[in-house]
Amino acid sequence: MEKPAGRFEGKIVMITGAGSGIGAGCASRFLSEGARVALIDREEEGLAQLTSAFPAEQVHAVAADCTDASAIAAFHRSATERFGPIDILVNNVGQSARERAGEFHRSDEDVWRFVLEVSLITAMRFSRLVAPKMRERGGRILNMSSDAAFAGDAGLVDYATAKMGIIGFTRSLARELAPFGVTVNAVAPGAIRTRAHDRVPAAVIDRIRQQTPAGFVGEPADVAAAICFLASDEARFITGQTLLIDGGRWMI
Fold it and tell me: Residue 56 belongs to what domain range?
């Protein structure tokens, strides 16, 4: 697929959970289209590998835990001091219980809290950090939901709950920020080929794949393409929406 050249030149993008998978795919796409990008992830090695492929003046990367409120505040401060106010925020970080996933009646409340924290609360924290300047200048916020929120996959109750919370958050924040030229949208990927899939029970992944009409697992680039469209000027009249990127598993 041919990429529009320089579509994001002059734009400052912040991406959470950018060390691998969908986050890394989004980062590569924005960087290749001219943006300056601030990245955060716990995986220092993944960030280093990504940033080494682009000019140093184009990337600001910090290895930190996105569930640590003080760490993300420090990251936001360092990123804006270096690049300026954030134009586009991609709230990508999040995960299911992975190897701890299972039937709800056997689940652990500490796991619920972790999944909600990393998949929902982090998006709220990062959005609150960028919102004041976006109210002055306009901007884009993109939130990562999941088609699990719609399909209600067995064994992923906590994850589906958090990701449906993302949709409610997206809609309410979109209404608040629309008068200031800020759009807020969500994407809801289905089965996407990332390392995280290796840590989800195989039966869950197999069931999702069998339910996907397209018949194959998507790639991070498929999600990055949609994210970049919603972040572009072409999507200025789209806000409060959720786009499913799941090969037709759930149709709305």
Answer: 12-245
